[in-house]
UniProtKB/TrEMBL annotation:
Protein name: DUF1837 domain-containing protein
InterPro entries: AbpA_HamA_C
Domain Anti-bacteriophage protein A/HamA C-terminal: 13-287
Superkingdom of source: Bacteria
Organism field: Streptomyces rhizosphaericus
Length: 295
């Protein structure tokens, strides 16, 4: 069941610059950055993230336990979880669905051959309905603690993944994984057909790039809230928002200065965190508890 109220708060949303910028905040509770609450929110979308369109349509009270079991096993079953990328892909998925109202075109996780495999290519394949046209959103995510490293690595992947030969191979792979029962399947297949010029396809592609990092502004906010427990957080929230935006825009400056590929439309999504290790641990514990409960 998807929540009726959005969990993620968009504190920066600037579409007047290129690339467009979004700064996303997970919020605070009882003086802490909401790591455990974010982990819970991400797992509310586990079915939507990990299963195919047909399987999601068949979800019911009779099939629910079996499908949840299948979904959580798709993530990973390894104890070596600190450097795995699935949680970043799940965060990207939830952000796209909740903030940008996308629809899943292909679940990359669904096509894993084994639960601990890694998936190549774009980290999300979603669409947005824009009037009578489909916009294809091919997501990239770097679930890192350091913004400079995240920018460096994602820049390299953007150039690699947007090269003509790579894109053609990726489009062929996506075409082969589109669910026949999905209503947009014929339209997306026509859009990605090898006879369609990449110049035309680029007009209908957005590359959402989500980068996480451990943030000084978030750290300072936690320190402030803990040191002033009797002060209402709302009385100081405006100063926090100003500092948040300043930091996020500096991240945008570094991202643009790194040297981005031409032609394609990119949307930069920055998600500052407190401690990545705390969020990773909360996510891993929740995944393991789900796997144990459905074993």
């Amino acid at each position: 069941m998807r929540p009726q109220r959005a969990f993620l708060e968009v504190l920066v949303d600037d579409t007047t610059i290129t690339p467009a910028l979004s700064g996303i905040c997970a919020g605070f509770e009882s003086g802490e950055w909401r790591a455990r609450q974010l982990a819970k929110r991400l797992f509310q979308d586990i079915i939507d993230f990990a299963l195919s369109h047909s399987e999601r349509q068949d979800f019911s009270s009779d099939t629910g336990v079996e499908m949840i079991t299948r979904a959580v096993q798709k993530i990973y079953t390894s104890e070596k979880y600190q450097s795995r990328g699935e949680f970043g892909e799940l965060l990207l998925h939830v952000t796209l669905r909740e903030v940008f109202r996308t629809q899943v075109a292909v679940s990359k996780i669904f096509f894993k051959d084994a639960s601990n495999d890694t998936i190549k290519g774009f980290d999300a394949v979603h669409i947005v309905e824009n009037n009578d046209k489909l916009e294809l959103w091919l997501g990239e995510v770097k679930f890192y603690s350091d913004i400079a490293r995240a920018i460096r690595d994602v820049r390299k992947e953007l150039h690699e993944h947007l090269a003509t030969d790579y894109l053609r191979r990726e489009f062929m792979a996506i075409e082969g994984k589109i669910d026949e029962k999905w209503k947009h399947a014929p339209t997306l297949r026509r859009m990605l057909h090898e006879n369609v010029s990449l110049d035309e396809i680029f007009d209908n592609i957005t590359i959402p790039v989500l980068l996480t990092y451990e943030s000084k502004v978030i750290k300072d906010r936690v320190t402030e809230l803990k040191s002033n427990p009797n002060v209402s957080p709302s009385s100081t929230v405006e100063a926090y928002r100003v500092n948040f935006e300043t930091e996020v825009r500096k991240g945008w400056d570094k991202f643009v200065a790194s040297g981005l590929p031409p032609r394609v439309k990119i949307r930069l999504i920055l998600v500052p965190m407190h401690l990545k290790s705390t969020l990773i641990r909360a996510l891993h514990e929740r995944l393991m508890s789900w796997q144990e409960a459905t074993a």
